[in-house]
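Quick question, first post here. What does this chain look like in 3D?
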Amino acid sequence: MRRAIFWTSAALLAWAQAGYGLALAALRPRVRQAFPPVDELPTVSLIIAAHAEKDVIAGKVANALALDYPRDKLEVVVACDGSTDGTPELARAAGADVVLDLPRGGKVRAQDAAVHRATSDIVAFSDANALWEPDALRALVAPFAMDPKIGYVCGQVTFVNPDGGTNQEGVYWRYEMFLRARESDLASVTAGNGAIYATRRDAYVEVDPVMGHDLKFPFTLVRAGWRCVFQPTAHATERMVPDVEGEAARKRRMMSHAWAIVLRGGLLDPRGWPLKYTMMIASHRWLRYFGPALHLIALATAPRALRRLQLLGLAAAFAPITRARRAQLLAKYYILTQGSIALGFADHVRHGTEAGWDPPEGTR
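> Answer (accepted):
Ran it through. Tokens below.
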């Protein structure tokens, strides 16, 4: 029984981290999804939720206004969430069409307020420190015109670290983009990203303020009958946390919000999802979030030799940097990420999760 438990937990971990990706790579959809630019462009409200973003908000507004999109069809809305550092004034001076100076209520409530104010057909969203390529908005809205069942589109974000550092988020994120592209081709994505995404205005849903759109929106909209797709030609870039320890702290905060969605936000309820999508959620989400528990089970039930091997791998990841720097950093990143999932769970259970957020250090 002990060996059976070990090999089952090990197999589930292997499937979640590598097997699922290999299976998606092997599955070829009958029609490769493509969303070329369209001539009939919808009206768009580009919403930027901002809290204490005085260092980047002017550049973000300028980036939005420079997009290759008809000016009479684009509304730039900055929703300031309790910003006392001058962010609202700087956004107005930079040329934002609408600036909402809101009391502190969290990112989601700021986005809700902006959607209520918006009058466009499409509401698009971006982080204050994310910069879009000139053609990104045209690419992002193209799927809506091609398929009336599409309610949500996320673009492709590239995380950059111009000052160097030890963070390996870029490697992980490239793999995530591959998974989302394949999920989109076969059914719908299981999660998005905050840097570049959009919904039809009539598909937008208000969610609990501690539950971010990135994880909550796709599976919620799929349950309502919409498709949620990935548009790889809609490009954005965003600065990442410079070091792997800082990334672990960021993920811990993120996972506190994610666990609210897992435990009471409907992520564990497959009702209303197609079977294929349920399998994707199970592989990409359920097993990922319960990965730390599976690791502990595998460690506790492993044969002695394999337990020693696991402990040696853990020690090697945190040993002084050797010649195999990239491999060592990737191992450290993976272990700290697993720890962040577990610590985020503990934070949520012990203290709950606040709706407010602060920009992670080093990303502005």
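The longest strand covers residues 227-239.
The mean pLDDT is 91.
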